[in-house]
């Protein structure tokens, strides 16, 4: 997968060299290309923002600079990327959206600083390619860069060959399928007793059916405790209902 990011802080993306994503890049699974937005600003101060029409606080990013940058990045590839503009006023980024993005050959992220990008940029590219304005949660960041890091990591770990254990994304919290809308339960490793705390006996039993049932019950109980709004009682089996009522 190719990922382009246009930002006034390309150095913000240094974490993409580390760990899982560093390895995915080294293996050629992930081709990340960072671009300095200011390279498309031609005045002596490399200005990318201006005061908002209609007044108000802060600055707005200039459309000509973003337009030139996006056009050049698009011209340097095959086909058209999916354009993703992070903004707290966008649609929520979820595991389902991460899975959608993981199926794309090319993503272009356009994180903004200040009060955002002149809205005509979204109108222009919304008609030329597939554009998503997305938010990573109900809080406000100082800019979209941290949101891009979050989204790239969520997408990259879904690409074939990135996770060590090919099945581990299947059991993720929020993953479609059996775990849809359930949070993952607790996990344990050796030793069997630590500071007097024992690993639940069922996990040592070797009984795969009982272990799967126990894990699902724990996931149901944890979800009911921390995210009750995720539980759709109509979709639960009798055994599921017993787990949350006990
Ligand atoms: Cl995508 N950007 C900014 N600036 N703040 C956010 C966000 C994005 N998602 C949640 N808060």
TrEMBL record:
What SUPFAM superfamilies does the entry give? alpha/beta knot
Q: What does this protein do?
A: Specifically methylates guanosine-37 in various tRNAs.
Per the UniProt entry, what species is this protein from, by scientific name?
Herbidospora galbida
Supply the gene name.
trmD
Q: Give a GO cellular-component term.
A: cytosol
Name the principal localization, coarsely classed. Answer: cytoplasm
Tell me, how does this one assemble? Homodimer.
Location comes to: Cytoplasm
- The protein in question is named tRNA (guanine-N(1)-)-methyltransferase
**Which of this chain's residues are annotated to bind S-adenosyl-L-methionine?**
136-141
**What are the entry keywords?**
Cytoplasm, Methyltransferase, S-adenosyl-L-methionine, Transferase, tRNA processing
Domain (tRNA methyltransferase TRMD/TRM10-type): give its ranges: 1-232
Residues in coiled coil: none
GO MF, any single term = tRNA (guanine(37)-N1)-methyltransferase activity
Q: Which reaction does it catalyse?
A: guanosine(37) in tRNA + S-adenosyl-L-methionine = N(1)-methylguanosine(37) in tRNA + S-adenosyl-L-homocysteine + H(+)
Query: One of this protein's GO BP terms?
Result: tRNA N1-guanine methylation
